[in-house]
Amino acid sequence: MAASRTATRTLRALRISTRPALTAAPRAAFRQGGRRLYSSEPAKSGGSNIWAWAIGAGALGAGGLWYLNQDGASATPKVFAPKFDDYQAVYNEIASRLEEKDDYDDGSYGPVLVRLAWHASGTYDKETGTGGSNGATMRFAPESDHGANAGLKAARDFLEPVKAKFPWITYSDLWILGGVCAIQEMLGPQIPYRPGRQDRDAAGCTPDGRLPDASQAQDHLRNIFYRMGFNDQEIVALSGAHALGRCHADRSGFDGPWTFSPTVLTNDYYKLLLDEKWQWKKWNGPKQYEDKKTKSLMMLPADMALVQDKKFKQWVEKYAADNELFFKDFSNVIVKLFELGVPFAENSERWVFKTVNA
Asked: Which of 251, 298, 308, 326 would staple 256 via disulfide (CB 3.0–4.6 Å)?
């Protein structure tokens, strides 16, 4: 294991060192200071015919009654109730593939998997009980075509081979597990996870407009997040996910990364909001900010709202000063987000998975 991890880190360092104008640094040392590089569509894999049919997926909580059928053989009923080790195997499969394509964005599918899990969960409405991570309805139009979900086909397609290898896991649980895996493998905090989500059909698609609009300010943020049941502190903590990934002009219209380390989760997002001087970017795209020093980073109007609003800013300052506090609060609030709208079985257990590459 140690040798494998060393080899992985070496490959990452080599990959980083080949990118111009960016400083290579070991990921493990990143949290102590320093910078790495810039992040966020994969080939579809043919599905296995070993597991041909399933019924009663919710009857056993996370498991179900599966019928084995391979190469035309007669179906044999098999009860399969997945345990922790089964989900750890799914986690390991995702982790092993995160950096399989060096030419995808900044070399990792991690950020776009976090965004998929986030957007699948962030449609929740506490008043109606609709939306949330239970359903994976982004597989269908019109939800898959909502503007806020542009580009997430890359994440959904990335997970299709995993779904084919582990057909017993629901898309809903798989998407959230992908987000959990990505955060932990990008040196983020431990994210407790519990299965139990069930898939829905297109009738469960939520209306457009439930996810944050990056061009808006603090009033909009509060309307969106209060609807889900979050408070101001939790809004700021969740926004720390913008330490990861980048925007794409051909998806959201915006362009660029928020931080110099978009494949490593740190509190740099908050530090940069406070410490850098930001100016409007002069270009033909939608309004966004760029840092005056390098003009290589960007912030969106919704990001700047966190330092323009006094109640938000106090939490930006706290997280900028204390990465451990940010990690603690981020872990708590991302678990809350990922579980919105899920009717878990009573006394269901949360698990923490062992990392593979972090």
From this structure: 298
